[in-house]
Amino acid sequence: MAVSSTSSCLHSRNGIHQPTLSCASKVFVGLRVQSPNSYGIGKSNLNVEFHNKVYKSIESRTCNSKPTRARVAMMPIGTPRVPYRNPTEGTWQWVDLWNALYRERVIFIGQHIDEEFSNQILATMLYLDSVDNSKKLYMYINGPGGDLTPSMAIYDTMQSLQSPVGTHCVGYAYNLAGFLLAAGEKGNRFAMPLSRIALQSPAGAARGQADDIRNETDELLRIRDYLFKELAQKTGQPVDKV
């Protein structure tokens, strides 16, 4: 049976009969029509609204002389946004993932520690401690360490906070990241079964005159002895073993 050209917006090609799609027929794309009042009186049904939008979009494309493919909306590249409920107001809002973690007193160190990243971590810890110093801070570490001075700034801030700080190693903690892992409160330092922890003496790249190189060397030796002493105190092991 031949397909009339006026009964459908899509025609069969090369004599091969294909299913026709009428402009007036409803198209259901795996969605089920629900009653507008299924979610309560006076409230919008998101499923019905979504179905109507999909139906109108498909209907507008099937009524053209040539079928067109709908554009696919891709997820934007960047920090994902997650729903977060404000505990005081009880309202929901979309915030970026790191902001949601900070509000739950979770701090994540997952990159090389430089001055900018260190300042961000410092500001976050100081703010959370000022809001409520009776709750614990959770620091998750998965990184290679970083520069000496910014890493030591994070360590000194951890020791000055009134809030207890629990450290967790997920992945690996090398060099000064491992030192920050040991700086957590006793009884609240954890490492995952497959995580890797490695420590080494601090290194520097001294350049210039002989006096400058000697001063840099003396400073590195002083910091090395300080790190060993703090590790011995945090772990309960003698300095020689550390």
UniProtKB/TrEMBL annotation:
CDD domains according to UniProt: S14_ClpP_2
Top-level taxon of origin: Eukaryota
Gene Ontology biological process terms, A to Z: protein quality control for misfolded or incompletely synthesized proteins
Gene Ontology cellular-component terms listed: endopeptidase Clp complex; plastid stroma
Molecular function as annotated in GO: ATP-dependent peptidase activity; ATPase binding; serine-type endopeptidase activity
Pfam families xref list: CLP_protease
InterPro entries on file: ClpP (IPR001907), ClpP/crotonase-like_dom_sf (IPR029045), ClpP/TepA (IPR023562)
Record-stated family: Belongs to the peptidase S14 family.
Protein name: ATP-dependent Clp protease proteolytic subunit
Taxonomic source organism: Olea europaea subsp. europaea
Species lineage: Eukaryota, Viridiplantae, Streptophyta, Embryophyta, Tracheophyta
